[in-house]
Recover the amino acids of this structure.
């Protein structure tokens, strides 16, 4: 944005300068007749000078441009866009014919980079996206993302004009909210959210009279209706019964509304686990988040086998290698002490980059030279230490893999999350903004 303004200013400056220069030359050489009065010659002379100055500026800029660090110098995430496109394809193929994949790209596409991800999905025919916030939706539109963009979360009604300006679709969370948006007087695209048992956002699916009142709002354009499942990841008998109950409540209400002629639009209720455990619902959209990125939330079983490929890896470099004598401690708090002489490597990534401090456990490791190297000592803000005693020829600048594949070895995001006592969604969302992106 800033740079395009700067370019526009430069262009204007050069145009005026070229015009003045042509006038000056005309005056000095006494050629004002052909150069100024003849509009074609005048136009050509100004254009030529514009072109020459542009060429000089561009070539000078290339020479003086300050050097920038390459993305894989210190610590970075590697994004495999072909794996992402593969996942979108297999998920879409897995869904029933009439159901389109809606890509959930909230929170910077779960740390994968929302623009690169959405563009790659646009190019393979995905034209429905979901975000959590207004700002996320605006960011996608400003970067040329095409199709429906549904905001799943709350948007302040005072920002209604932004919804219109950026052609965003807003979730209607209850009647009060519908009324507030309607009063803005602007035509706003919306999906109505029903609460079928998650008890987060949404209007109670049994509250028919209030749902019907929502459809009386004249300024709202009703394009969809949806709900969210709270336990679709669990296959325990109780949770399966609960999920089926939620699904039943959803279709009961939507059928009622359709029978009464309300424009319900597109129906959707499944997120990733809904797709994998309850694939055959008669929906128009399925909202895939975590599965699209080729991971599941945890190592729990799912009913269906879909060939998903991880999209993201986390990598860093070896800064230095050193020998430590027996009985010496490594890192803060002296939580690790060497028994024998040990060769350790200092790695250029820490908890400020999103490598959770509690990953330091007895059996945590990273990959280097396609081998496992245990993490030793507490993880620091910007660095961590690993044991490379049994790994030959480790040298500064070697690549260290924290999540991802190295030769035959792999650290899955699910295993990394398990070590940290959380789910992959949180790990991915917490990757630090200091990490660079390397798209492969
Ligand atoms: C985040 C979110 C999703 C995506 O969930 P995943 O489990 O990552 O697929 C879908 N629907 C809603 C309402 C969400 O908030």
């Amino acid at each position: 944005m800033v740079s395009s303004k700067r370019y526009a200013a430069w262009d204007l400056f050069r145009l005026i300068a070229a015009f003045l220069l042509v006038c000056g030359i005309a005056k000095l050489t006494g050629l004002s007749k052909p150069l100024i009065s003849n509009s074609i010659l005048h136009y050509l002379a100004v254009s030529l000078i514009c072109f020459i100055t542009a060429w000089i500026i561009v070539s000078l800029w290339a020479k003086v441009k300050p050097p920038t660090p390459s993305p894989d110098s210190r610590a970075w995430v590697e994004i495999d866009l072909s794996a992402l496109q593969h996942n979108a394809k297999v998920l879409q193929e897995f869904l029933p014919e009439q159901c389109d994949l809606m890509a959930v790209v909230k929170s910077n596409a779960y740390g994968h980079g929302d623009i690169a991800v959405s563009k790659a999905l646009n190019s393979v025919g995905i034209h429905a996206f979901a975000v959590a916030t207004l700002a996320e939706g605006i960011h996608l539109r400003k970067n040329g993302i095409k199709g429906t963009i549904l905001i799943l979360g709350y948007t302040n009604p005072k920002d209604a004009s932004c919804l219109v300006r950026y052609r965003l679709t807003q979730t209607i969370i209850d009647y009060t909210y519908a009324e507030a948006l309607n009063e803005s007087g602007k035509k706003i695209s919306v999906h109505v959210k029903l609460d079928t048992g998650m008890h987060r956002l949404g209007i109670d699916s049994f509250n028919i009279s209030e749902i019907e009142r929502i459809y009386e709002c004249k300024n709202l354009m009703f394009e969809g209706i949806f709900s969210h499942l709270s336990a679709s990841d669990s296959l325990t008998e109780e949770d399966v019964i609960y999920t089926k109950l939620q699904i039943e409540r959803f279709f009961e209400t939507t059928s009622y509304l359709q029978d009464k002629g309300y424009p319900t639009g597109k129906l959707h209720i499944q997120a990733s686990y809904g797709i994998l455990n309850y694939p055959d619902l008669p929906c128009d959209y399925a909202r895939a988040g975590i599965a699209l990125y080729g991971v599941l939330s945890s190592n729990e079983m799912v009913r269906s086998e879909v060939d998903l490929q991880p999209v993201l890896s986390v990598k860093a470099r070896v800064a230095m290698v050193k020998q430590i004598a027996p009985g010496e401690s490594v890192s803060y708090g002296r939580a690790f002490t060497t028994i024998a002489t040990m060769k350790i490597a200092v790695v250029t990534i820490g908890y400020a980059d999103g490598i959770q401090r509690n990953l330091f456990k007895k059996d945590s490791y990273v990959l280097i030279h396609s081998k496992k190297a245990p993490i030793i000592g507490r993880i620091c803000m910007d660095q961590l230490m690993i044991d490379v005693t049994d790994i030959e020829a480790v040298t500064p600048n070697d690549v260290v893999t924290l999540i991802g594949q190295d030769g035959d070895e792999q650290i899955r995001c699910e295993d990394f999350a398990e070590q940290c006592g959380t789910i992959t969604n949180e790990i991915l969302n917490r990757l630090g903004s200091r990490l660079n992106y390397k798209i492969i």
User: Anything to note?
Assistant: The two ends are 25 Å apart (CA to CA). The chain has a mean pLDDT of 93. Residues 104, 106, 152, 228, 271-273, 287-291 surround pyridoxal-5'-phosphate (CB under 6 Å). The domain at 312-411 is CATH 2.40.37.10 (Lyase, Ornithine Decarboxylase; Chain A, domain 1).
